[in-house]
């Protein structure tokens, strides 16, 4: 929480200091190509792994207690929530148990503004998550998905 608060006092002009603090937060040095625009929120940080050339736009929440892997060349839009943890549906257990399920975001994924990614999913390489989508199941590689719950809209290929 202390490191996150320090990050959130910085601006776009403080990219080097954001990288230093984010590296402390996750316990691993991030690549010089990593860019995060504050504010940013997380439950821990220790279960986050990021690749090279990752961009995280402002006001994102990464609840990582279930494990979060973000591979190279990923772009995360503003107001995105990536949530590896949740609670049981059963009312008697909701406050006593936290369930963690990992999320893997493969290479070259773009998660557009306001999307929510729920624990236990893998987002395939080169895929796009449309703005405002709620991803509850694995996303095949080279796919555009959208909606709530997100579904495949079409295949993506370079022409």
What does this entry show, briefly?
It contains two helices and 18 strands. It has helices at 2-7, 15-26; strands spanning 35-36, 40-42, 48-50, 55-56, 60-63, 68-70, 75-76, 81-83, 85-86, 99-100, 103-105, 110-111, 116-118, 122-123, 128-129, 134-135, 143-147, 150-155.
Describe this structure in words.
The protein is mainly β and 159 residues long. It has 2 helices and 18 strands. The strands form 4 sheets. The protein has a 7-stranded mixed sheet. Strand 17 (143-147) and strand 18 (150-155) form a beta hairpin.
What features would you highlight for this structure?
159 residues, mainly beta, seven-stranded mixed beta sheet, 2 helices, 11% helix
Number of E-state strands: 18
Report the end-to-end length measured between terminal Cα atoms.
Answer: 45 Å
Mean pLDDT across every amino acid position: 96
- For this structure, the quaternary state is single chain
Gross morphology is: globular
Quickly count the helices: 2
């Amino acid at each position: 929480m202390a490191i996150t608060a320090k990050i959130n006092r910085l601006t776009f002009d403080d990219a080097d200091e954001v990288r230093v603090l984010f590296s402390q937060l996750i316990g691993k040095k991030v690549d010089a190509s990593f860019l995060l625009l504050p504010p940013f929120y997380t439950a821990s940080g220790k279960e986050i792994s990021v690749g090279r050339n990752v961009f995280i736009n402002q006001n994102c929440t990464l609840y990582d207690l279930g494990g979060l892997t973000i591979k190279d060349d990923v772009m995360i839009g503003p107001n995105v929530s990536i949530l590896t943890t949740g609670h049981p549906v059963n009312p008697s257990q909701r406050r006593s148990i936290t369930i963690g399920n990992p999320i893997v975001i493969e290479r070259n994924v773009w998660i557009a503004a306001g999307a929510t990614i729920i624990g236990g999913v893998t987002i395939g390489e080169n895929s796009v998550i449309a703005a405002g989508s709620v991803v509850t199941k694995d996303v095949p590689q080279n796919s555009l998905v959208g909606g709530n719950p997100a579904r495949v809209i079409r295949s993506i290929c370079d022409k």
